[in-house]
Every structure is written in C-alpha cells, then in structure tokens.
Write a structure and sequence with these properties.
The structure is a homodimer. Chain A has helices at about 1-10, 15-25, 35-45, 50-60, 105-115, and strands spanning about 30-35, 65-70, 75-80, 85-90, 95-100, 120-130. By secondary structure, chain A is an alpha+beta fold. Chain A folds into 2 domains: about 5-80, Arc Repressor Mutant, subunit A (Orthogonal Bundle), CATH 1.10.10; about 85-130, Ferric-uptake regulator, C-terminal dimerisarion domain (Dna Ligase, domain 1). In chain A, helix 3 crosses helix 4. The termini of chain A are far apart. The interface between A and B is medium-sized, with 33 and 33 residues. Strand 6 of chain A pairs antiparallel with strand 6 (about 120-130) of chain B. Chain A binds a DNA duplex (25 and 25 nucleotides) through helix 2 and helix 4.
DNA sequence: CTCAGTGCAAACTATTTGCAGATTT
DNA sequence: AAATCTGCAAATAGTTTGCACTGAG
C-alpha cells in the first residue's frame, strides 16, 4: 500500500504525501503537472499548499517513486514509476499523452552510446504530433 | 550570408540579430542558452539587452533559423538549424553536448507513430550520461 | 518618414525557500 | 519530546511584456 512506499523512502507518512501518491496511483490519467495535482487535491477538499506539492514531488522523484518529465512547454509533468521504462507520444492539440516502448530503439540507443564511449544513464524520447481521429 | 537569412525571415537586419546569428554560425560550440549568448555578446563589447536576445531567439526559432531544445534542467538551449536533423547526448558532468543521427531509430519512430494513428510532427531524443575519458 | 526593433524595468510563471507552528513517530 | 513536515509568503530563475526612444528601409 501507499504508506509503505512512503516509509521506505525514509519519509513520514503524512496526509499530503498519501494523497498525492494515491492520486497518481488511482487516476486513469497518468501524467500530472504540479499545479494540476494541487488543484485536484483542493477539489477533493484536501487542503495542501502548492509548496508542499512541489516538495513532495521532488522527494518522491528523488526516492524513485515517481518520474519527472520535461516535455515541451513550460511545466514539468510527473507520473508514477511503475518500473517499466517507456517513452511518450504527446498530442500537441489535446495534450493527451500516451506511452510506448520499443525494444529496437532501446537497443540502438545502447549501441550508439557505446560507439561514442558514452556511459548512458537515462534517456528521454518524446514524439510530438497529433492523434488522428478514428471515425 | 547572415543578412539574407534574416531578411528572408521577414526581419530587419539589425546588429543584435546579425551578431546572434554570427555567434551561432561561427562558434565551435553549437549549443547555447539565452543568458550564455547574452554574456558572449557583452564580452565582445556588443551591447544588447537580455530581452532582445530572448526576442530574437524566439523570432529565429519561429523562422526556422534555429532550433530550441528543452533538455533536462532549467533553461532552454538553442542551436543553428543546419537542416540536418539529429538527436543529442548530454554529458551530465561537464554539460557537453554532442549530436548523433541514427536511421534505424528514425525509422522506428515513424513506424511506431503510424501504428498508433499518430501524425508525427517532431520528436526529441536525448541520451543523458557521461563521456568516458579516452586516456 | 514609417514601422519594426531595442533597452530598461516591471511583470509573469514555474518552482524554491525561510520560518514558525503543526504532525508524525 | 524530537525531528520532520506543512502552509504561508517572500524569494528565485528564466522568460516575457509595456513603453518611449532608436534605427532600418
């Protein structure tokens, strides 16, 4: 359950932390901006400060509970780290984000890094475009 | 020459524009942050305001003369658009950036987009890590 | 001469931080 | 009780904008 993840991260189990993690775990939507999380909580009558949201997100990111993304645009986006790496496709009209994983690309990245004497630590691949309507 | 590119973009040929473009065209370094460009010009006794640097970079980006990147971290990075698409490897220690291009990855991206009914407009692939010393 | 461009300072947006009081353990 | 956490407001960093003046065409 939520609580244990928080505890294992060396953090006290507090309301804001429980609620933020719960939101990320149980929402259909997977990607949230900080302000978005903040408003989401407020709308559920959970009182938090935006500063706390940012602090918690930073701590969760450091603890590896969540992942922080720097997509195009001004604000960062967070998602639960479910342990399975994936990349993203971002719909520039609707803002919708979907995930994908491609073994060939993953492999090539490793090879390219190796060819360049580059120790690969992480990578970010994002496709920007638009989902075509299916009907 | 510089001037014509600026003119073709529908912009007047002014000192700040000429100098910013020249810097990007002639520097060994290919990637610059806005503040970095600003200080680079000041150090050459070219007086500009930081606001002008931002405005010019925005206009050049809109005109397709340069490309704006959102790497990890707080600030955007600009580089001349030499017309050849490429991705980046960023050394997280030194900040050094090198470019690469891989046809296999490019192809896979197109295929993946197609499979998802996604009209691909642009993409961003960045590898983060560290260059290993060669000696 | 006209309109776009510039510098400055003020405004903004996203995010961070100091601090005193509140909570977790 | 001790240490961490929180909310608030103030501070930052990067970037943008309003405005009166300057400069390109």
């Amino acid at each position: 359950m939520d609580q244990s993840d928080i505890k294992e991260a060396g953090l006290k189990v507090t309301k804001p932390r429980i609620e933020i993690l719960k939101l990320l775990e149980t929402s259909e939507k997977q990607h949230f901006g900080a302000e978005e999380i903040y408003h989401e909580l407020l709308s559920k009558d959970i009182k938090v400060g935006i500063a706390t949201v940012y602090r918690v997100l930073t701590q969760f990111t450091a603890a590896g509970l969540i992942i922080k993304h720097n997509f195009e645009g001004d604000q960062c986006v967070f998602e639960l780290d479910r342990g399975e790496h994936h990349d993203h496709m971002v719909d520039m009209k609707s803002g919708k984000i979907i995930e994908f994983y491609d073994e060939i690309i993953e492999q090539r990245q490793k090879e390219i890094a190796k060819e360049h004497g580059f120790e690969l630590m992480e990578h970010s691949l994002t496709l920007y475009g638009e989902f075509k309507d299916k009907g």
